[in-house]
Write a structure and sequence with these properties.
Elements: H1 2-16, H2 32-60, H3 71-99, H4 106-126
Helix pairs in contact: 2-4, 3-4
């Protein structure tokens, strides 16, 4: 729980400054704080895309149930899956953070992990088509 709170505070402080990443040339950063800002800025964009993909799918599943399709059950299962995915991502990225705990790149590793997992989840949500 302490690690989660610590990571959340680190992420929030980095995200608060992520807007400044637009002023940083992220292709040329060399300092760890600048790298973290750039990753946080990218993560914010990916998180917005993740939310859009989830909301789009949820909206497509907001239909009246038919004899062939139980949309109420589809939405319920999607919510269960999304909550499980969120827990998985936290646990997975927490593990990566711990493995790099003594290094100065631990926050970058953590943020990159969250970004990569979000990108994967967007692809997974988009693969639910034709919904």
């Amino acid at each position: 729980m302490v690690l989660h709170t610590l990571l959340l505070s680190v992420f929030c402080s980095v995200s608060a400054n992520a807007g400044e990443a637009a002023e940083i040339d992220c292709a040329k950063v060399i300092s760890t704080p600048d790298v973290e800002q750039c990753i946080a800025f990218e993560l914010d964009k990916v998180e917005a895309g993740l939310n859009e993909a989830y909301q789009r799918l949820l909206k497509q599943l907001t239909q009246v149930d038919t004899p062939q399709d139980n949309y109420t059950e589809y939405r319920k299962k999607l919510l269960i899956a999304q909550r499980a995915w969120i827990k998985f991502r936290e646990a997975d990225c927490d593990a990566q953070y711990e493995m790099h705990r003594s290094g100065t790149i631990r926050n970058s590793i953590y943020l990159s992990c969250k970004k990569q997992r979000a990108e994967q989840r967007i692809n997974e949500l988009n693969s639910y088509a034709p919904y």
